[in-house]
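Why does residue order matter? Because the sequence determines the fold. Keep that principle in mind as you read this record.
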Amino acid sequence: MCIAVGQSPSARFQAPATAPLPLTVYWGPDATADLSTPDGVEKVYENLIREGTNDLQEALLNVGLPSRVCWPQLRLPKRCPDSWEARFPELAA
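Structure:
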């Protein structure tokens, strides 16, 4: 998908918490992520940004969380960070 949502995503996923990932974005053996760890945050954001619809991203992502934890380390196609950083300049800072 890799299109930055039009509005700032909600703060629904906030650490510490365990978050279940929808089957539409993650189909691996363990669809939960521990948001109190950088690995868990990366798992959520990599999969939701790559595979999630705009509606799903807007409902589940918190744009402030990856910028504080792991934005530069996310493994995403080049077009994804470019799109998101254009929409949310604080991610590029």
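The first helix runs from residue 38 to 51.
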